[in-house]
Backbone:
């Protein structure tokens, strides 16, 4: 199986879906002639031309709204936000229009749009460029939220997101764009709403989404090597829809759970999962459900300190040891 | 409204788009305006009878704008507007029943009681709402027009907005892209002089008019008076032709006036931020229905009796709609979580995979 970068896996998904459906278009700042700020769309402008791959001015509210309006008429725009942090400028369009128009029209309208880009900290770009919005957006009925951790997941989920008839918020990660992973040559899709057990284990469930799933895998290796603890790693992949069954199945087996995410703790995704577990798996639990998030402060610039602000493998090990 | 006197010197009845109207079509235009007025008046009565909740933004006084613009729509022309949306809804052919029932929050409403006054939709009639956030619809209108161009369809999207909406940032982002990408969108500023309780002079800085701001984007713009529906049609037709033939945007400002407050909850609209005399002045001199009615009677197209008949019919239609709405059932409790996700509603494989709702 070829080893390709996360960004190229996404690029393949765009190219394949654009070949398949003439209504799929790519739009965003620098996505065309510049090849994308993070080169996720490289080569696609040359291949598909200006009609299908379109540079927009720096006007997030305007162009995201334009994509939403176009999607109401059956175009399937894939809109790049150079950073998900910039979505704050387009909040009204995403939350009031993309998410609500189906409901407010009594089901007469739907918005088959994908809004995508990196949503992560850890790159020393300061608080304005380091937001994780997945918990915010998953709070809005009408939106779907996807956070792939690997090249394989990124491609399969992106293809499903483009084919989905609802607005999908697709959250990538600049720290993962250059990470290589196995991606098959033949076509495949990964449905939204299905978690992936990335490591089987028996002693504790490390549940995570996005890059935190990879951090959890590293922690699991340390736990196995140094503490004789066999951790299971459940990568949600999609926050909404959520694969609740996969979480419950894992916890019924391991009886312990830690949620790991790069969101902030207050009303983070882990808070939702912890609440669900105490309600639905209370008798299966041998310990309280613990959470590890990004430290509860704006993203710090100082490169050495920012590393400590995000969950690290040793933070997870420490948390696990407190309940195992 | 400074240009009103100048505009009235021109007879827009003689422009090609108006001179070809048959007597029947002229009466139809008048009838549509009267229907909107009677619907709104009935809505107000029902609001006061506590048959509905929330806000109610009435269109009385502005009827010539929606009716004039919509009367020019071809099969591939589309409409989107803000929260003062009842007039446009009726003009595109939505029924009084479905609109009134929506106000009442009933299952027979155009949005099954899920949208309310500010959120009427009829995509089958190229009507895309009904949007509650001021200027939030301006990028959507751009997107509709972009989609038409992308599909190679000769059409335009008319995006209505109030004078209060022109100071929102996304409108300018939209103007820039409309010009940059040659998108056939027509921004129609219904300038009724007030941004809620703030007069134009207190809310907007401009040189000669609001539409002139388009000049900086190299977009064609115009200004006209909404008193005469012929004037509205003549100006909008030019914009539609520009959209169809050149795929170019237009910003058109239409001077108009609302007789009621920003919403019915706006108690300060008489004797507060504006005086009763001002409202009376518009009713006496600029009422689009009375002006057009007089014209049609003078030219022999209409008689006073015939006008009475169509007015009575509109009144009866609105009353019947209120009765229909009153007698309609409220939506079921289960429907609260329907029409959220397309895939769930259709029970597709995607809709059946994973948990979409978190009520249990």
Residues:
């Amino acid at each position: 199986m070829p080893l390709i970068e996360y960004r190229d896996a996404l690029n393949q998904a765009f190219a394949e879906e654009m070949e398949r459906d003439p209504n799929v278009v790519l739009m965003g700042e620098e996505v065309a002639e510049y090849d994308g700020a993070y080169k996720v769309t490289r080569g696609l402008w040359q291949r598909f031309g200006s009609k299908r791959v379109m540079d927009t001015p720096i006007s997030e509210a305007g162009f995201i709204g334009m994509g939403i309006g176009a999607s109401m008429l059956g175009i399937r725009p894939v809109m790049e936000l150079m950073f998900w942090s910039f979505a704050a400028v387009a909040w009204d369009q995403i939350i009031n229009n993309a998410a609500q128009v189906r409901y407010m029209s009594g089901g007469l309208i739907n918005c088959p749009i994908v809004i995508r880009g990196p949503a992560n900290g850890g790159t020393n770009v300061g608080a304005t460029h380091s937001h994780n919005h997945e918990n915010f957006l998953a709070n809005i009925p009408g939106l779907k939220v996807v956070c792939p951790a690997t090249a394989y997941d990124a491609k399969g989920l992106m293809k499903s997101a483009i084919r989905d008839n609802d607005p999908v918020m697709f959250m990538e990660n600049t720290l993962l764009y250059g990470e290589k992973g196995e991606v098959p040559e033949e076509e495949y899709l990964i449905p939204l709403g299905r978690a992936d057990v990335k490591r089987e284990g028996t002693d504790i469930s490390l549940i995570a989404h996005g890059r935190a799933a990879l951090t959890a895998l590293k922690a699991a290796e340390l736990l196995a090597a140094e503490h004789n603890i066999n951790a299971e790693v459940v990568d949600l992949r999609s926050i909404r829809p959520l694969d609740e069954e996969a979480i419950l199945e894992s916890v019924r087996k391991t009886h312990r759970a830690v949620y790991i995410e790069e969101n902030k703790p207050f009303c983070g995704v882990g808070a939702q999962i912890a609440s669900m577990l105490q309600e639905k798996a209370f008798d299966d639990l041998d310990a309280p459900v613990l959470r590890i998030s990004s430290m509860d402060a704006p993203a710090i610039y100082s490169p050495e300190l920012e590393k400590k602000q995000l969950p690290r493998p040793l933070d997870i090990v420490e948390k696990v040891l407190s309940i195992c | 409204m400074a240009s009103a006197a100048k505009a009235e010197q021109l007879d827009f009845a003689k422009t090609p788009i108006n001179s070809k109207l048959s007597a029947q079509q002229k009466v139809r235009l008048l009838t549509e305006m009267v229907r909107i007025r009677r619907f709104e008046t009935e809505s107000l009565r029902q609001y006061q009878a506590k048959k509905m909740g929330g806000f109610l933004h009435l269109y009385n006084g502005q009827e010539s704008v929606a009716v004039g613009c919509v009367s020019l729509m071809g099969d591939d022309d589309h409409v989107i507007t803000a929260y003062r949306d009842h007039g446009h809804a009726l003009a595109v052919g939505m029924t009084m029943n479905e609109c009134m029932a929506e106000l009442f929050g009933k299952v027979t409403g155009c949005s099954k009681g899920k949208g309310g006054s500010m959120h009427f939709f009829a995509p089958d009639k190229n009507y895309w709402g009904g949007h509650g956030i001021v200027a939030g619809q301006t990028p959507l209108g751009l997107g509709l027009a972009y989609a038409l161009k992308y599909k190679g369809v000769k059409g335009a999207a008319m995006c209505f907005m109030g004078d209060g909406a022109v100071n929102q940032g996304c409108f300018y982002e939209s103007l820039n892209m409309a010009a940059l990408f040659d998108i056939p969108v027509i921004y129609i500023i219904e300038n009724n002089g007030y941004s809620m309780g703030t007069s134009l002079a207190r809310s907007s800085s401009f040189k000669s008019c609001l539409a002139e701001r388009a000049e900086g984007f190299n977009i064609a713009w115009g200004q006209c008076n909404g008193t005469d529906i012929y004037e509205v049609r003549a100006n909008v037709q030019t914009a539609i032709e520009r959209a169809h033939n050149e795929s170019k945007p237009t910003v058109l400002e239409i001077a108009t006036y609302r007789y009621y407050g920003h919403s019915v909850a706006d108690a300060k609209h008489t004797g507060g931020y504006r005086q009763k005399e001002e409202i009376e002045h518009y009713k006496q001199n600029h009422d689009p229905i009375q002006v057009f009615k007089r014209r049609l009677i003078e030219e022999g197209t209409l008689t006073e009796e015939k006008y009475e008949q169509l007015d009575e019919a509109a009144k009866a239609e609105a009353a019947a709609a209120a009765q229909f709405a009153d007698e309609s059932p409220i939506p079921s409790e289960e429907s609260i979580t329907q029409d959220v996700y397309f895939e769930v509603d259709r029970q597709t494989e995607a809709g059946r995979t994973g948990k979409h709702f978190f009520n249990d």
